């Protein structure tokens, strides 16, 4: 029974987190204090904490200890092509969008490659952060080819770009190729997001096409690790 003590400790803390007794952002007691509380070894405590970490209940942050993660995460569909405004509405959220950088630019080599652009092309560059619950937790970096999006304003970017593209410009946005990776946080991430000690970030890269198969947008949507999960539905073919 003693060998399974770490499982009992793990279950006790998952129950506390799931019930809201221990809230997201709070720190668990130290390994030393937990070992004294449960009259057990620090090795047993470490096994319980590792299990909590592996199952998404806590994040170990240097200098802060074991921090409880928000288990009520927003769900972003992987296979769908929806705007942030549409996701927010479906989840009854009221986020704040802040435009940090906006304007027409000449593409650098990286963006030229992503959009198959030429040196003559002009690109709309839009950097926006999303604030939810008082925290800046998403950084969206959008690039649009001007030949497909002739006009764009900061006010539109603060509201919904896709709503403008489809309703005003009458663009038929058809499909996207997506890539999801975990990367080291950049200086831009640190500048625009409240990272809370996290050193990595989830990046969703989108290559978005019109119905004539023209690539017109490249996006990097950069998400803080503890706030989001990405979901999909799959069916086995017969």
TrEMBL record:
Gene3D superfamilies: Chorismate lyase-like, Winged helix-like DNA-binding domain superfamily/Winged helix DNA-binding domain. Residues 3-71 form the HTH gntR-type domain. It holds the Pfam family UTRA. Keywords: DNA-binding, Transcription, Transcription regulation. PROSITE patterns: HTH_GNTR. CDD domains: WHTH_GntR. NCBIfam families: trehalos_R_Bsub. This is Trehalose operon repressor. It comes from Metabacillus bambusae. The gene is treR.
